[in-house]
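Hey team,

Filing this mostly as a record. A colleague (T.K.) asked me to run one chain through the structure pipeline before their review meeting, and I want the input and output archived in the tracker in case anyone asks later how it was produced. No errors, nothing strange. Just documentation.

Input sequence:
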Amino acid sequence: MGMTGLLFAEILIADTDVDAANKMRTVLQNVGYIVRRVETGQAVLEAVANQAPDLILLAVELPDMNGYTIARQIRNSQRATFIPIIMLSEKDSQEAMAAALNAGADEVLVKPLSNTALLLRARAMLRLKHSSDALADLNATLERKVVERTQALEEAHARLRHAEKLSALGNLAASVAHDINNPLTGILTYLYLMKQDLPADSQLSNDLDLIERQAQLIAQLVKQLQSFSRPPRKDKRPVPLRAILDDILKLIEHDL
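Output structure:
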């Protein structure tokens, strides 16, 4: 963490010893840290919940609860960001250090503190927080990329499955079109031969013309089935609308 990080780092001091707390505040503010001070465990927990500091200097003895209990509650709060805790102890013993570390503290300093020890430990803990925050950001970025990549793969698989279904349907359509086309060719051939033997003005000839046009529509449908699996064409052409309507009326005139 460089000087820019130091200027924005916020440290919370929780201690009822006014003289010691003011001394720590002065030392820390002189190097660019922003310092707040509270005197109760409840105030510490509220500060963490509302405006979390970058570092907590926590005295073991506070009026409403001890520092061990506060550290445990902070560690058990399932916070998304890591807050380093330096426990301020009156006792220089292995038992006191073990109790602080077991409660969730990251470092223990014994009062009275030297200015050098305070600054060195504060800088080390803030660097630890900076590394932890950077790792958390990296994990969040990786998780987001995994989600995005997974979604992209699922979409690609869905497109592939859709393409496979279209291919299978296209093959089926081509097979059906082939089966229809063979008898249809025979029907059109015999229609042509029958029309050759009839006078042009006979009613039967007109009926055969209608049948031929409907058969041609089936032939067109067969072509569409054969081209189903290929990219669609956008060709447009004018059609004789009156002739189409006349054919429709002839097909349904008996029902009418």
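Quick notes for T.K.: Residues 115-196 form the longest helix (82 residues). DSSP finds eight helices and five strands in the chain.
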